[in-house]
Amino acid sequence: MNVDVVMPAYKPGQKFIRLIGMLSKQTVPVGKIIVMNTEEKWWSDRLVGELKASADKVEVHHLTKAEFDHAGTRNAGIAHSDAEYVILMTDDAIPYDQELVENLLKPFSDPKVGAVYARQLAGEKAGIAERFSREFNYPDRSEKKTIADLSRLGIKTFFCSNVCAAYRRKLFDELGGFKEPAIFNEDMVYAATLMDHGYAVCYAADAKVIHSHAYSNAQQMHRNFDLAVSQAMHPEVFGRVKSESEGVRFVMRAFGYFTKHGRPFAIVPFVITSANKYYGYRMGKRYRELPEKTIMKYTMNPAFFEKMRGKI
Fold first, then answer.
1. CATH number where 195 lies
2. pLDDT tens column, 31-57
3. Maximum C-alpha span of the chain
4. How many domains does the chain have?
5. Which among 40, 96, 183, 260 would be 20 to 30 A from 297, CA to CA?
6. Terminal Cα distance for the chain, rounded
7. What is the pLDDT of residue 246?
8. 147 and 44 within one domain
9. Closest C-alpha to 88, from 108, 115, 107, 68
10. What's residue 53's pLDDT?
11. 206 and 221 in one domain?
């Protein structure tokens, strides 16, 4: 199996350097590491120097912030690869060990598997709410999902994350890649396309990356606004399932988790954060009814709406 890695980058820092270093130590070696870097000014000589021995694998393509698109930028990066398999990563997802690539590729022994995504572990400094979120969404048990699981798993059927996910390249090209434009969820939309064509998506719990964030309530609201916009743009996928029921299950499970870890009162800020997320989600679902000024206030990606003005 030959495999390349493609990742968008924006202001890459120490996590990015650690990521590249770990990719150079994998039990299954990667070919090219194709970086789609937003704004050339952030790709400094100091950064290049710190990449050291790994730099010979790194192929950089610069784009402007206005040109970035969650689907289009990744499609363009994949087009620079001729590998049989392509791993998509973000620039802050650090491989947990040297077996990440090997474990991501194992499920492809099944010819019906079109995509495999990794388990995300919270970083050492992550708070209890973030640790719960990672454990809820990325359990320690692997799973293969097909369209037959829709009644059982609901929206989770289509869950896949380009924070770290591998794709069968030939099939990716045959199905047209990620649908453009995309403000969010290009991975889930593609997962649904795979399943609608009779293929499966695997969650590989033994393929692990360290990836977590400490978003503020406002950032969570903005993020969920954009998430809901992506769902509203693709009713052919998300119109088949309800996201709200999964959100309710998420909140209900949180209290038990916090109590188990001796932090029952952590539910209070968690509920406040969840309320902000839900508010952003509800606003995003009806973004077409909102004036442009309001959309720009709520979105994390104003450049997307500027680029798509009058088209969505």
1. 3.90.550.10
2. 999 999 999 999 987 787 888 666 678
3. 52
4. 2
5. 40
6. 40
7. 80
8. yes
9. 115
10. 63
11. no
Q: Are residues 287 and 196 in the same domain?
A: no
Q: Is the same domain home to 258 and 132?
A: no
Residues 205 and 225 in one domain: no
Tokens 């450049």, residue? 303
Q: Are residues 140 and 171 in the same domain?
A: yes
Q: What is the pTM of this model?
A: 0.95
Side chain identity, residue 189: V
Using one digit for the tens of pLDDT, what is the confidence trace for 63-104? 999 999 999 999 999 999 999 999 999 999 999 999 999 999
